[in-house]
Amino acid sequence: MPRRKELKKVLVIGSGPIVIGQAAEFDYSGSQACTSLREEGVEVVLVNSNPATIQTDYEIADVVYIEPLRPGVLAKIVEKEKPDGIIGTMGGQTGLNLTMQLYERGFLKQFDVEVLGTGVDAIETASERGKFSELMNRIGEPALDSVAANSVEEAVGFARTHSYPLILRPAYTLGGTGGGVARSEDELVERMKFGMRLSRIGQVLIEESVIGWGEFEYEVMRDGRGNCITICNMENIDPMGIHTGESIVVAPSQTLSNDDHQMLRSASLKIINALNIEGGCNIQFALNQQTGEYYVIEVNPRLSRSSALASKATGYPIARVAAKIALGYTLDEIPNAITKKTPASFEPALDYVVVKIPRWPFDKMPEADRRIGTQMKSTGEVMAIGRNFEEALQKAVRSWEVKKSSLADCRFKDLKEILEHIEKPTDLRLFAIYAALKHGVKPERIAELSGINPWFIRKIRNICEMEEEIRKAGKGIYKDEVLAEAKKYGFSDRQIAELIGSREIEVRRGRKAAGIKPVYKIVDTCAAEFEASTPYYYSTYEQEDEANPQGVRKVIVIGAGPIRIGQGIEFDYCCCHASFALREEKVQSIMINNNPETVSTDFDASDKLYFEPLAFEDVMNVIEREEPDGVIVQFGGQTSINLAMPLAEQGVRILGTGVEGIDIAEDRERFRKLLKELEIPQPRNGTARSFEVAFEVAERIGYPVVVRPSYVIAGRGMQIVYNAEELNRYIHEAVDVSEKRPVLIDKYVEDAIECEIDGISDRKRLFIGGMMEHVEKAGVHSGDASCVTPPVKLSRKIQKKIVGYSRRISSALNNIGAINIQFAVQGERVFVLEANPRASRTVPYLSKATGIPLAKIATKIALGHELGEYGLLDTPKLPYYAVKSVVFPFLKLPGTDFVLGPEMKSTGESMGIDRDFGRAYYKALLGANLDVYTKGRIALSLRPEDRKHARKLAERFRSLGFELVATEGTAKAIGDSAEVVKKVSEGEPNIRTEILGGRISLVVNTPKKGKDSLTDGFKIRRSAIEANIPCITSIEAAFGIAEAIECVKRNELTIEPLRYYTSKIKGVRHA
Amino acid sequence: MPEKKALLVLRDGSCFRGKGFGAEAVSEGELVFNTSFCGYQEALTDPSYAGQILTLTYPLIGNYGVNSEDFESGRIQVMGFVVREVCGEPQHMKSKEKLDEFLTRFNIPGISDVDTRMIVRRIRNAGVMPACLSVYSGREPDYGELLDRAKGLDYSKIDFVERVASRERKEYKAGGKKVALIDCGVKMSIVRELVERDLSVVSVPPRIAAKEILAMEPDGIVVSNGPGDPMLLTYLAKTVRELAERLPVFGICLGHQVIAHAVGGRTFKLKFGHRGSNHPVKDLESGRVYITSQNHGYAVDERSLPKEFIVTHRNCNDGTVEGMRHKELPVFSVQYHPEANPGPLDSKYFFDKFKKTIG
After folding, report:
1. CB < 8 Å to B287, chain A
2. A842 DSSP β-pair partners
3. ipTM above 0.95?
4. CB of B255 within 8 A of CB of B236?
5. What string of DSSP letters covers A434-481?
């Protein structure tokens, strides 16, 4: 069936901000789908609230809406654009849910819009567990006994006839949100209530448990004619009971025989046919490897995290093909984009092993429960490719960036603790397994405790044994076969150096002298059966090298690695733009990255892709093989910037700002000296290399102070301390202080407005793309703050001062390319907080807000162009407002508190754009998945310092028609007869029961200093998180939200394409 | 025990040194590759691999051991086995034996720890070629000697069917209808598929005369898969020609090629064959595409087929003939393996069709 010619315009729904369970993979699938549709001459309308996405670029879609992903907003867009079809299967669960809502509310019928690809029936059957179980029964596929319970009674009833543990999964939620294991009736009741609140339809599936069985996934595609193929199968190393997004996954399966594999493959095809899927789909099975029994666990009738992984693991562009299927093509009519000669109707053959490891946020959230289970807690993932399992695993660990150089690099108290991490899995399980093996625990015993197939444990034991051999070989390793074997097993030079008491660079030298160098192999979808035209490489230690470097002008872009708190999709976005810019300049673009979810690792995002760890060794190897004209490090966040120095030391040419400028900006002491020379004020600060000095410095500066270790990522380990006692605690608990690891102490600028600029400098000038004013006051990490451009509070005079300081700093750093500078404004005084001579996380947001592709231009500047060529002189003046807001992962991380500070906690961002600040902020909040109601009851509980604002805030909300309840102190401060509600410690009913009872629509709780999960404040905030209602924790944001609600009550939201706004800026050439 | 080593020498002179497993032995064969990531036991015991040294593209082989069920014949049929890594500690509930032990038991040499992707690329670019594999524990064997042995092999001139086909009749009793299965080196899965459909199967050697088969009064004929160049099987082509005029005939793989020769068609050698579990084939009559299990080095030349034959299946990758049928007579054939093992089970409808044909 050829393409349906009547489909001329298609609406594609994105997935919104990055949250746990829904990350960059949907920018990847959405972008690929859009490109695929446009190749067919379809006009694509794209809507997403996340500005840090490639799919919202003008190059990807014809019409872009950066608007909240809400049915009402979508309906307006549908009405305005009148698309012929809608594709919701590229936007994760968000896209799927929206499609269903639009359908259920009759909008699609009203505007004659067809759901393309997989239809609503299939979505419904796959998503609603009751219907799904029914279908499985009908086609004779074994599904676990389950009930779709709409009430606690139903759940308990089911439990009476089945045995605990039972698994709970709320319908229509993502990443297992609200799901879990109930081991008793009490747990069941509690989880049931929680789950019903989170499900869109208040329904929770209660299911028998197969905890401990092997978990296998099949990525399947089907076209409208019923042709089906499996793209690949994947084996979860962690057995059932751990969400697949939380599992270490290997592709293809390693422990299945042909019969096992064909059994599950055939079941997959049967299911996808019965569901009538048209596009991609993911099917999960539980397999008992002692008996051969299996169950179908779940079907995702859409592109998913697993399909992104499968795409990267095989080279097969699933989203691209799914989009073509949605237009009516059959699989055999679509060419395989990798081989170009064979059709898409084949099953990829792998001749390598792929390992994926999730990236958890516990480094940023030390208070969170580290145990992993049925609900996702990880924010991202890394993938590595090798010719054996050991190699792939060790490369993945190296890519992980958890400050651990190897599997051995984790300290445990004793064997008891080790075994605990194995039996009750945490993010450290892999390290614990390694440690247990080193303690002499038998693989079979570890397998028994963990439920992990012994095959994998034995492979890890091989690594352990090799470690011993390396140690034994010592410095004589170069003459030995051991070195070659060690490299084949994925040992890094650094690991080997540590084991033989040498230095990484020496091992590197010795290894090369011994003739042991990596070769590069191609990921070609077909195990070399056909010639591949797409250069997608991975390294291994073997004989034949296929890298084939061309003698052309070329530049390597170093990627950003896994999505984690502090280094999100924004950096991948910038890396992609660097690649695109290189292409536009006719320079060969070479990407190195290890994140399977992102656009940067798409097969055609760059001219060449090396899927490699971003460690010095691996990057340097690629550089030596490719011999590029230069390397760009300013887009991959801290990951790439940290490589600048070691690469430069090897004589590698860093394009853009030099390592000297980078070092001045990163080294707080050098930076302080610089500002002093430039006569630019900075909060008083000092550096302490011992405990004693820390106290002296803090006394001298005066409390409160911000303390942090040097060389930080996203405020890690940073804290505001108010007195010597707190400082004492922080220093002893949180950090190592030493000569090599000083602690930096800055005066905390109280009651200040924070603001930042993103700019680009060439060799002569600095162009400031925009000034972004934070909604929350200084002290909240800039990544967690909402911000607005243009500023609303800063006077023209202050803005001028900021511009002046920025120019001086950028020039002093000899900055070439992107730069970000952060300021705190206290009255008339402007302090510089930090300068980052690299692209910051606000670059995509600002690029979308202004229509100026900052990262692309920064790349071109780094290549030698000048700002004047792009007409970039003055900061563009926006006749509208763009607000960035953020999303937090607290709901998914039990035990965490909603308190913002200098430690970054958010996972993703949204943007709202409108004519005034209020509406833009409102849209940003909606876009960040917050349900901001314009009526109802607001609960206020302010800390003493903020109560001076209580009366004014209360008046604001009341004038907007809200009812107010307040805790006692706050109610007194409001002064009139505000309804008083008890704190949790004061007995029931209290503010928690009110919130959980659904009688509160917004909570304003400003936290007291100090972190303590026993406080009333913590319980209030946790209740709001669990009730899924907005919780505002700063007084500034509370006023901001009041203004937002006021604007929305007065005016309708403007729903217009992005270009409607950006075309209003005068004097800027648009991309 | 000293570690075994291995040396693989290709006719083009290239040689690969690796670890040895299986038997300490020397053997030569046509070096071919298969892209399935599992199913090595089925492949090793598939008689169609007779005379060939099999390379698997997937690097980790032997993970789930060798069991007592997944045999396609009573023994290992390949001449040698080439893998990237062989698993010494298999894990599977059915596993009875390690791959190393399995090869040793059947006196077959295996080589591991070689760059199999390099070997595959060489074959892809130059075509399949003879090679000689030696597994040893003492001194390295003489390269020149192995090269001579590789060069001395002319795969297309050897009737491998003679070597693997059964020499006597075997009966697999089931229902009322009787199928004469001409065994050119049949995979047991074909017999299983027929018996599962309640067909009684009598397998007969390929040098049997048509009238002998007719005397058995079968309801239909299946011409099985098997190794080697179909051009050498003129004796069988003649038999099949006679049978096709009287009885329903279903050819699989080599059987399909033999039918082509029987009706005056030709076959040609593919550069590096089709071996794997991922090849798309389009059923031209239904328009559906199936992922198929393939193992063949020769293909039917479409232009050589008589007018009475129509192509029913075509390979989506290279357009070669994957199935055909006679316009009027109940004679049809398939180039790939509907019986799977290893590979997808998507094409079993061929057996249903055959059963329907014989009534």
Report:
1. 225, 330
2. none
3. yes
4. no
5. HHHHHTT--HHHHHHHH---HHHHHHHHHHHHHHHHHHHHGGGGGGSS
Compute the distance between CA of residue A668 and CA of residue A680 in angstroms, rounded to an integer.
15
The alpha carbon of A971 is separated from its chain's Cα centroid by a whole number of angstroms, namely 40
Nearest CA to A776 among A599, A935, A596, A902?
A902
How close does chain A come to B57, measured CA to CA in Å? 5
- The per-residue pLDDT for range A923-956, each reduced to its tens digit, is 999 999 999 999 999 999 999 989 999 999 999 9
> Which of B91, B277, B346 faces A255 most closely, judged by CB atoms?
B91
Average pLDDT over residues A1008-1029: 79
User: Mind listing the domains of chain A with CATH numbers?
Assistant: 9-116 (3.40.50.20), 145-209 (3.30.1490.20), 402-516 (1.10.1030.10), 684-747 (3.30.1490.20), 753-886 (3.30.470.20), 890-914+916-1050 (3.40.50.1380)
Q: For chain B, how many structural domains are there in total?
A: 2
Number of DSSP helices (H) and strands (E) in chain A, helices first: 36, 39
- Where does a domain end: B109, B125, B158? B158
Structure tokens at A22: 């829904």
- What is the domain-level CATH number for residue B315? 3.40.50.880
Q: Is residue B317 a known part of a binding site?
A: no
Interface touch B291/A529, C-beta < 8 Å: no
Domain co-membership, B151 together with B172: no
Looking at the fold, whether B128 and B74 belong to one and the same domain comes out as yes
Q: Is the pTM of this model over 0.90?
A: yes
Task: Give CA angle at B194 (B193, B200), nearest 5°.
Answer: 150
B289, B290, B293, B341: which to substitute to probe chain A, counting the most A Cβ within 10 Å?
B289
Q: Which residues of B are part of the catalytic machinery? A: 253, 337, 339
pLDDT tens, residue by residue, A834-888:
999 999 999 999 999 999 999 999 999 999 999 999 999 889 999 999 999 999 9
Tell me, yes or no, whether B307 and B197 share the same domain. Answer: yes
> How far does B124 lie from chain A, in Å, by closest CA?
6
Residue B228 marked ligand-binding: yes
Q: From B95, B133, B102, select the one nearest B11 (Cα to Cα).
A: B133
Cα distance from N-terminal residue to C-terminal residue, chain B: 60
Give yes or no: residues B142 and B282 share one domain.
Answer: no
Alpha-carbon distance of B289 to B274, in angstroms, equals: 17
d(CA B160, CA B172): 25
Q: Does residue B243 share a domain with residue B353?
A: yes
- The residue assigned the tokens 């003698």 is A551
Residues of the domain holding B18: 5-158
- Of B129, B158, B187, the residue that ends a domain is B158
